[in-house]
Amino acid sequence: MAGTGESYLQGERGIWSWLTSLDHKRIGLLYFFSVSFFFLLGGIFALLVRLELFSSGGLFPADLYNKLMTYHGAMMVFFVIIPGIPAILGNFFLPLQIGAKDVAFPRVNLMSWYCLMGGFILAASTLLLGRGDGWIGGVDTGWTFYTPYSISFKPAVILMAFAVFVAGFSSILTGVNFVATVHRLRAPGMTMHRIPLFVWAIYSTAILQVLATPVLGITVLLLAMENIFNIGIFDPDLGGDPVLFQHFFWFYSHPAVYIMVLPAMGVISEVITTFSRKTIFGYTAIAYSSVAIAAISFLVWGHHMFTSGQSEIAGITFSVITMLVGVPTAIKLFNWLATLYGGSIQFVSPMLYTLGFMFIFTIGGITGIYLATLATDIHFHDTYFVVAHFHYVMVGGTLMAIMAGLYYWMPKMIGKMYNESLARLSFVFIFIGFNVTFFPQFILGNMGMPRRYHDYLPAYESLNRISTIGSWLIAFGFVIALYSIIDAVINGSKAPMNPWGAKTLEWTTQSPPPHENFEKTPTVTAGPYEYR
Amino acid sequence: MFWFVPMAKANNTFMPPAASEVAQQVSSLYAFMLITSAISFVILIGGMLYFVYKYKRKTANDKTPYISHNHTLEFIWSFIPFVVFMVCFAWGAYIYMEMRDFKENALEINVYGKKWVWEFEYKDGRRITPTVDEAGQAVPSTMVVPINKPVKLIMTSAKITPEDKAVLHSFYVPALRVKQDVIPGRFSALGFTANKLGNFQVFCAEFCGTGHSMMMAKIKVVTQEEFDKWVLGDESGGGGKELTLADKGRQAYAKWACIGCHTLDGKPSTGPTWKGLYGSTRTFNDGTTAVANEDYIRESVWDPNKHIAKGFEPNKMPAFKGMVSEEELAALIEFIKTVK
Amino acid sequence: MSTDKSPGHHTAHHYNSAEHEYSTSKEGVWLFLTSEILMFGGLFVGYIIYSNIYPQVFHEGAKHLDWRLGALNTIVLLTSSLTMVLGIYYCQHNDRKKAVLNLAITILCGATFMVVKYFEYSHKIHEGLLPGMWYHGPVPEGVSNIGLYYSFYFMMTGLHGIHVLGGMGLILWVLLRAQKGEFNSSYYTPVEGVGLFWHLVDLVWIFLFPLLYLVG
Amino acid sequence: MAHHQQNHVENHAEHHEIPLSTHLKVFAALIGFTVLTVVTAKGMHFGAFNWVVAFTIATAKAFLVLAFFMHLKGDQRIFKYIIASSFFFVFLLFFFCVLDLLTRIPVTSTLPL
Ligand code: HEA
Ligand code: HEA
Ligand code: CUA
Ligand SMILES: [Cu+2]
User: Fold this and answer.
1) Closest Cα to residue A79, out of A53, A51, A47, A45?
2) Among A261, A416, B268, D79, which residue has the fewest nearby CB atoms (within 10 Å)?
3) Is A266 a residue whose pLDDT tops 90?
4) Cα–Cα distances in angstroms (integers) from residue A499 to residues A407, A502, B59, D59, in the given order
5) Which protein residues are within 6 Å of ligand 3, measured from CB?
6) Distance (Å, rounded) from C-alpha A348 to C-alpha A407?
7) Do A446 and B13 touch (CB under 8 A)?
8) Distance (Å, whole) CA A360 – CA B45
9) Is the peptide bond before A236 cis (omega within 30 degrees of 0)?
10) What's the pTM?
11) Minimal-distance CA residue of chain D relative to B122
C-alpha cells in the first residue's frame, strides 16, 4: 500500500510512470491534458471559421472553409465534449465520491485513454489524405458525414471513419468501466440513494455510452466500407437509402448530446449545493430525471430529420417524444432554483460559472423546444438558429460546467488554490463573449441564413460581424482561464482538505488525495448533502 | 448597423416577411413560443438572480434551512412545462400537416438539384436554368408562379454526368417557411401557396460540397395574368429566335451546369473563372504550362483531369465526354472567347 | 470463496475479495457484450429493412450460398461453444489437462470455421459474387442491385469472422495461462470472460445462419 | 491486503455450477434445433412463415446458449437485465426506422421525366 500522506502526484515520477499509470486520478489528468489540447485545436478552427464569416465575400476558398468547419465540429464533438466531463472529472471524482479506491477496471481505463489518442492520431492523419497532388487533404463533409456526399470516394473520410470508430471505442470502454464501478465499488453504506448527484449523472451517461456508441461504430464502419468497396447500403445509385444513414447516425448522435450534457448537470448539482451551503432540493427528482433523460433520449433522434424525407408520421412521433425530454430537464433547473432559496450563497468562480450555465442552458434548452416543434423546425432546420441552439447548450452549457467543475475541484486535484480574480475575469469574458457570439446567430437563423455557408448574402453581414468579434472575446476568456490554471499550478497556495466546506466524500481525504484515495475506506451513514 | 431593428418591429420576429398563409401561421406560433419562453425564462432566471441577491452569504457560518423536497412544487414545475410543450407540439404538428397537404389542383413543377444549381421544369417542358444576362452577370434560376395558386414541387437530385455522384440538397424558401431535402434516387415534395407578389430567395440548406453556399435560386410570384402571359411568351427559352454561336454557347453554359463552377466575372469559384481564359497561358499543378486554345478547352471539357489548373482540385469537374456534343463544344469555345 | 490463495493471482487492491473481483469483472464483460450486440444489431436491422424493400435481391442472392457449408459451420461453432464451456468447467474443477485440451479444441473449431469461410469467400470472389458495385456474377432477371445482398453477406460474416479471429486469440491467451496452471476453482475469471465472448460470437452466428443461408 | 467490509448486497454470486450432463444435453438440443431449422427451411415450404419458423428456432437456440453456456440461469439478475436491454435497444432502432419506412408516402410525378 502506498505510504500514507504521499499524494498520487508524488511517488513514481517521470513521463513513463504517467503513461502507464493505472491510477484513475492520473488517468484523469492525462485526459485533462489531451482534451485541453484538442479543445485548443477545435477553438482555433472555430476562430478561423468566424474569421471567414467576418464579411461577405470571404477569405478562404470554399473547400478550405468546409474543412475547417468539419474539423471544428468533429474535433469538438468526438474529442472534446464527449470525453470531456466523464473522462476528466468523472475519472477523478467518481471513485472518490463513492469511497472506492479506483475504478473497476484500471487497465481498461488506461486503454480507453490510448484509444482516444489513437483516434486523434487517425483523425489528424486525415489531413494528409487529399485527393490531389500538392493539396492539403481532409474531410469536408461536416461532422454528420451525410451520405451520399461522404461516399463519393474520399480517402480522408475512410480514415476519419476509423478515427471516430476508435474514439467511440474509448467512450464505450469508459462507459463499461463506470457502470461497473457504480454498481460494485461503492463504500459500505453508500446505497444508490446516497450517491452524490454527480455520480448519478455520470452513471446515466455511462449507460448511454454503452448502449448508443456501438451503433455509431457500425455506422461509420459501413461508411468506410462504402468508400472503399462501394457496398451500396447507403448509396442511392446502388439501391441504398441515404435517409437510413441519417437514422443510424442520429440513433447515436442524439443520445450523444445527452452524453455531453448530463455530466455537466451533475457538476452543477454539486457546485450549487456547496456554494449555497444547503442540501439539494429534490435529490430523488434530480437523480431520476437523469435516468429519465437518458432513457427518453433514445426515442427522439428523428427530430434531426424533419425535413430529410422521412415520413410525416415518423416526424410527428419524434416531435412529441422530443417534447417529453424537456420535462425532466425543466425539473432539474427548477430544483436547482429551489436549492438557491434560503441558501447562503457564496460568489466564487465555480458558482459564477454555474449561474452562467443556468442562464445560458435555459436559453439553449428552450430553443431546443422551438426546434422540436415541427412547423418552426421546418424553417429553422440547418440554419444558424440550430447553430446557435447547440452552441448554447454545448458551449454555454457543458463547457461552462467543465469550467465550474475544474475550478471547484482544482484544490483537490492539484492541491493548490487558484487566483480568484483571474478566474472571475475569465468568466466575465467567456460569458459576455459567448452571448455576443451566439445570440446574433439566433437572429441570423430567423432571417434564414443556412449553416455551413462559407459565404452569405450581404444582408447578413452586420450580425456576422458582431458574432465574429464575440468569438475573440471568448478566446480571450479561455486564454485567461488557461493562464489562471497554470498560475495556480506554479504559484497557488496550498489547498486545505476542504476549502469550500463541502460534504461529499472526496473532501474528506487529503488534497491532493493519496494513491489509495482514503486512509481507511469510509463508511457512509447519510445522504451526500447533509448541511444541517 | 442596427438596420434589422425596424424590420423586426414590423414583423414581430426577425423572420423575413411571410409570403404565404402557412408562413404567417408559423410566425404566430413562433410569437407564442417567444412569449411563453420569455415568461419561463423570467421566472427561472429572474428567480435565480433574485435568490442569489437575497441569500448572498453574509457570515462565514450562515445557518440554512434544511428543505429536501416538496411534491407539490415538483408536480407544478413538471406539469406546467409539459402542458406548454404539448401545446407547442400540437400547434406545430397542425401547421406541419397543412404544409404537407398537397392540393389536387396544384401547379406541379419539377425541381432538380444539381451540383450546384437549381433547375425547374414546367409541365409544358419549359426548363429553367441559371443564365447570364448581357452584362455577363449570372442570373439564378427563377421559378415563376402565380399568386394564390397552390404549387407542388416534385424534387429530386440529379447528376451532371452519369459518372457524377448526386448528393443531398435542400430546397429552402425563408419567406415561405418551407424546406425539404432533395434526395437522389427518390422524389420528395414541397407545397406552398404564395400570397404576396415579389421575388423570394431560395437557398440550398443541406450541405452539398464546394458550391453549397452559392446554390441559390429565386421564386418570382406574379399575378395570374402575368403568369399566363409568361407561359405563352418566350422570355425564358428564347425559342424561335435565331441565335448566334456565342449565344448557343451561353445556353450550353447554363444547360450543362458549367455555371455552377465557372464564373464570368473573374472570381474563381469551384473552377477557374472563364474571364480572360481564352488565349491565356495556363499553369498546372505539376508546374507545366499550356496556352488555352481551342484544343486545350476541348480537352479540359472532355477529360478535365488530364491537366489540373493550378490552385484547383482534380475530380471536381466531371468529364463531359459523350455528353457535350461537338457542336455545343464549338459554341462553348466561341462563348468563352467572348468573355474577356 | 473469498480466500485469496490462487498461486498466480492476487486480487487487485481496490477489491475486497476474490469474489468481488470476479463478479465485477463478469459484469464488465456483460456490459461489453451488450455493446457488441448493438453493433451487430445495426447490421441486422439494415438487413431486415433491405430484405423487405428488395425481396428478390435477397432471394436471388441467397441462392448462391451453400447452406451445407453454413450448417457445417453452425455445428462447428456449436461444438466449440460446448468445448469452451467444458474448458471453464474443468478449470473450476482444477483439472488442468482437460481444461487445456478443451480450450485447444475450441481454437481448432474456430480455425475450422475460418477455413470453411475461406473456401466460401474464395468461391464467391471467384464467381464475382461481390458487394455492391463490384458484383459481376450472374444477374437474374429484373434485379438490378443484387450486389446489395453480398454487401450484407460480406459485412456481416466479415465482422463476425473478425470476432472469431479475436476470440481465438483470446482463447489462446487463456489456454497458455491455463497451461501454466494459473487457474483453479477459486480463480478462473479470464476463462469465464473469454468464454462469454466466445458464446456471443456463437450467438451472432445462430442468427446469421438462418438469415443468410436459409430464408432467402 | 486490507480486507474491509464493502457493501455485499450485489456481490455474492453463487459460483453457480451447471453439471456436465446439462451442458451435454443443451449441446444435443442445439444440434437438434440446427437440424430442425435446416429441415423446415429446405424441406418444407411455409412461404412467408419461413421467417417466423427460422427466427423462432434461432431465438430458442439463443436462449439455450444464454441460459446455460453463458451461465445466465441462476446467475445474478443484473446480467439478465444488461443483456435484455441490448436486445431491447436493437429493437428500438429497428422499430423507429421501420416506422418511417412503412409510412412514407411515395411522391409521384405527373410530369414527363
Ligand atoms: C449538449 C447538447 C445538447 C442538448 C442538451 C440539447 C437539448 C435539446 N435539443 Fe438539441 N442539438 C444539439 C445539442 C444539444 N441539444 C446539437 C449538437 C444539435 C445539432 C446537430 C447538428 O445538426 O449538427 C442539436 C439539434 C437539435 C434539433 C435538430 C434541429 C435541426 O437540425 O433541425 C432539435 C430538434 O428537435 C433539438 C432539440 C433539442 C431539445 C428539445 C432539447 C432538450 O433537451 C432541451 C430541454 C431543456 C429545456 C426545455 C429548458 C428548460 C425548461 C424550462 C426552463 C421549462 C420552461 C420552458 C418552456 C415552457 C419552453 N436539438
Ligand atoms: C463542444 C462543442 C463546440 C464548441 C465548444 C464550439 C465552440 C465554438 N464554435 Fe462551434 N460547432 C460545433 C461544436 C462546438 N463549437 C459543432 C458540432 C458544429 C457543427 C459543425 C458542422 O456543421 O458539421 C459547430 C459549428 C460552428 C459554426 C458554424 C459553421 C457553419 O455552419 O458554417 C460556427 C460559426 O460561427 C462555430 C463557432 C464556434 C465558436 C466561435 C466557438 C468558440 O466558443 C470557441 C472558443 C474556444 C477557443 C478560442 C479555444 C481557446 C482555448 C484555449 C486557449 C485553451 C484553453 C484550455 C483550458 C481552459 C484548459 N461553430
Ligand atoms: Cu446543394 Cu447545398
Ligand atoms: Cu437531438
Assistant:
1) A45
2) B268
3) yes
4) 12, 8, 16, 57
5) B 113, 116, 169, 204, 206-208, 212, 215
6) 9
7) yes
8) 10
9) no
10) 0.90
11) D111
